[in-house]
Design goal:
Blueprint: H1 4-14, H2 23-28, E1 33-37, E2 40-43, E3 48-51, H3 54-58, H4 67-79, H5 90-101, E4 108-112, H6 115-133, E5 140-144, H7 153-157, E6 175-178, H8 195-210, E7 215-220, E8 223-224, E9 230-231, H9 236-246, E10 250-254, E11 278-281, E12 293-297, H10 299-304, H11 327-341, H12 344-361, E13 369-375, E14 378-383, H13 395-407, E15 410-411, E16 413-414, E17 425-428, H14 436-455
Parallel strand pairs: 3-15, 5-6, 5-7, 7-10, 10-11
Antiparallel strand pairs: 1-2, 2-3, 4-12, 8-9, 11-12, 13-14, 14-17, 16-17
The structure holds 4'-deoxy-4'-aminopyridoxal-5'-phosphate.
């Protein structure tokens, strides 16, 4: 019931796409997605694709076409669609309770609409504590090279992906970068016998340089996602937690990508036995069926904001208008039920392992695969010209491989231009409902795409 030529032309003429060069659309027309079902989407021209990145940006964790979510959202909207979160609503209360059951040690949920916004709230919580509890000290927030925390000016100020931020300065003061932890591209002079601990100690060095009394929080992705799918090495997280405790620094973990099952546990940090003070989440919270994000804190953090005297701490002076939309928590509640009822955490762990092993199997055939890594259904394939020197392939090679996959009906992703100019990692984040057959199809498409691309190099 739509005219596909009209839709594509209207889009081409009026829609400003995200993160995209538009010149090519003048020739080929933009891609317009018109239908989704399970792991598959269809475009306006009738092409079918297997989506190995869950809506391009690792979002649709439970897959497309979930009528049970749509029904719950519809029922909620006709009953009560909106009232500001200055008051409560039924799905927000029910979802919060269910979410907190999965997050031992955490207790309060603050609703907003996007990952960036959830992180902004976290930063504001840290800043208010700094001003009201520490006499304006401890306003600094540490973030890590290669991590990404959002698209607004403050969250970009807290993002370690230089290529995507340098156009947008000047940045917000008091965000300070710390070194990354990536064993495959470890820093020169690193102690490789205990790299994780060494990398965590680099954070301590920055803390001591800046002065611990000036630092309020350390903000980290549990596994760096867009920056190259990088899991920190053994020993890193316990040492990070120890450092935060020693210097009275809040640990803020950004679960926007890893949250809600992506890596085979409810949250990424739960692999590493650390207890955060603040956790932010967005994408998988409602799998894209509604816009919702959460900033979750411990009761200890929340307690500070219960002070009645406004001259002292007072309350949190923040509101997000659409944090009061009930569609978000109504969708999120059913989304969590699906993950539980269909055992999707376990499936993500099992299929992720299978996918990585299959991809590693391609290494004997394709010299350009330098590293295959990740956890659960978050997978990175770093491409190099030479395995010994690890010289990265040009960005155009990754683009060509993604293009071939697309022509063969499989949508894959690539990381942001994250590490200075480095952009040589394919990334995969298929829905948690993936089957072995789906994974085989993805691996075959990548295998063929690499062969095709390399033959023309
Ligand atoms: N944090 C992380 C780790 C992300 O990957 C992203 C988005 N890719 C964000 C925050 C920002 O989320 P949003 O685009 O919803 O603002």
């Amino acid at each position: 019931d739509f005219d596909s030529v009209d839709v594509v032309n209207s889009d081409r003429d009026h829609v400003w796409h995200h993160l995209a060069h538009h010149k090519p659309f003048e020739k080929t027309g933009p891609m317009v997605i018109v239908k989704g079902e399970g792991m598959r989407v269809w475009d306006a021209k009738g092409n079918e694709y297997l989506d190995a990145v869950s809506g391009a940006v690792w979002t649709v964790n439970v897959g497309y076409g979930r009528t049970e979510i749509a029904d719950a959202v519809r029922d909620q909207l006709v009953t009560m669609n909106y009232f500001a979160q200055t008051a409560g609503n039924i799905p927000a209360a029910q979802f919060s309770k269910k979410l907190i059951e999965k997050m031992p040690g955490m207790n309060r949920v603050y609703f907003s609409n996007s990952g960036s916004e959830a992180n902004e709230k976290a930063f504001k919580i840290v800043r208010q504590i700094a001003h009201k509890k520490y006499n304006g000290k401890k306003t600094k927030i540490l973030y890590r090279e290669r991590d990404y925390h959002g698209t607004t000016i403050a969250t970009l100020s807290a993002s370690g992906q230089h290529e995507r931020r340098h156009q947008y300065g000047p940045f917000v003061p008091d965000f300070v970068e710390v070194p990354h932890c990536c064993e495959y591209r470890a820093q020169e002079g690193a102690d490789m016998s205990q790299y994780g601990v060494w990398a965590a100690n680099q954070i301590e060095k920055v803390i001591l340089q800046e002065g611990p009394e000036t630092i309020g929080a350390l903000c980290l992705e549990p596994i760096t996602a867009g920056g190259g799918v990088i899991e920190a090495s053994t020993g890193y997280w316990p040492r990070v937690a120890e450092i935060c405790k020693q210097y009275d620094i809040l640990l803020h973990i950004d679960e926007v990508v890893c949250g809600l099952g992506r890596t085979g546990t409810w949250f990424g940090y739960q692999h590493y036995g650390v207890q955060p003070d603040i956790v932010t989440m967005a994408k998988g919270v409602a799998s894209g069926y509604a816009a919702i994000s959460c900033t979750v804190t411990t009761e200890a953090v929340f307690e500070m904001f219960k002070e009645e005297d406004d001259a002292k701490m007072g309350y949190f002076r923040d509101i997000s208008t659409f944090g009061g939309c009930t569609a978000g928590p109504a969708a999120a509640l059913v989304n969590m039920e699906i993950i539980e009822n269909e055992n999707l955490l376990e499936n993500a762990a099992v299929q992720g392992e299978y996918l990585r092993e299959s991809l590693k199997g391609l290494m004997s055939k394709h010299e350009i695969i330098g590293d295959v890594r990740g956890k659960g259904l978050l997978v990175g394939i770093e491409l190099v010209k030479d395995r010994t020197t690890k010289e990265p392939v040009a960005e155009s090679v990754v683009i060509a491989i993604a293009g071939h996959c697309m022509e063969n009906g499989v949508i894959i992703g690539r990381t942001n231009r994250s590490f200075k100019e480095l952009n040589n990692t394919i990334c995969l984040a298929p829905a948690l409902i993936s089957t072995q057959q789906d994974m085989d199809r993805v691996v075959t498409a990548i295998d063929n795409a690499i062969a095709e691309t390399v033959s023309k190099m």
